[in-house]
Amino acid sequence: RKEYVDLYVNYKFNKSVQKPFEDFMQGFLRGCPARNWKMFFPEELQVLLQGHQTFDWHLLEKNVTYTEYMESDQTIRNFWTVFHELPEEKKKMFLVFLSGSDRISGYGLRPFRFCIADPQKENPDESSPYASTCSLTLFLPR
Could you list the residue ranges that cross the membrane (predicted)? Predict the structure, then answer.
């Protein structure tokens, strides 16, 4: 029985995926030659390829610039109060809304900067926030 289980596990985890894995590895090595990525630990390589998955949200707040707003404006204070009360998943959804991705590059949040701008609508109560993902700008009506 042990031999059967060993052979079955070997088939499921190794032999059955051998061809697709070889194809993947060949493509991966074509785009990222082994000599370039062997210097990284697996965790570092994962961050480089996938970006960071955990964030210091207060650092994100410190990196924001404002257009037609000041940091002390009530709208901005309300925004950050609500933002920091959101669950982690909703904060990542905000990143998707703002930048198109729920992850930040391997450099982390320190160089990640975005802008909160006032779209200067005549009636801000009839306008919703919107974002320009190209310029990382959140247009937040008053």
Answer: none
